[in-house]
Amino acid sequence: MTIVERLVPDELWELFQRVVPAAPTRPQGGGRRRHGDREVLAAIVFVATSGCTWAQLPPCFGPSGPTAHRRFTEWTAARVWAKLYRLVLDELGARGELDWSRCAVDSVNMRATKRGS
């Protein structure tokens, strides 16, 4: 099992593919081959869980730190993380693997509206 497969198991990868936007096409063609989404996702997971910086990303992932960061930024703008979070919760809920009894709401915050004088 590779480090990519350990950080992004098949089940997570299947869910991720449902929310990640399609890769943009280059109208002029050519250029460098785009790194695979799974490798980039593994690099992002590694940075998030290890505490290293993008520049410290080991080369074993394939994409460079700047490439992983650029894709992270693109996916953040596309709300991929929120969609994936919701999809994981839905999947766990469907399996009966969420224990909602441990969730409690103890207060609600509301912003006061300003009234004109």
From TrEMBL:
InterPro entries for this protein: IS402-like_dom, Transposase_6_like
Name of the protein: Insertion element IS402-like domain-containing protein
Record Pfam families: DUF4096
Domain Insertion element IS402-like as annotated: residue spans: 9-84
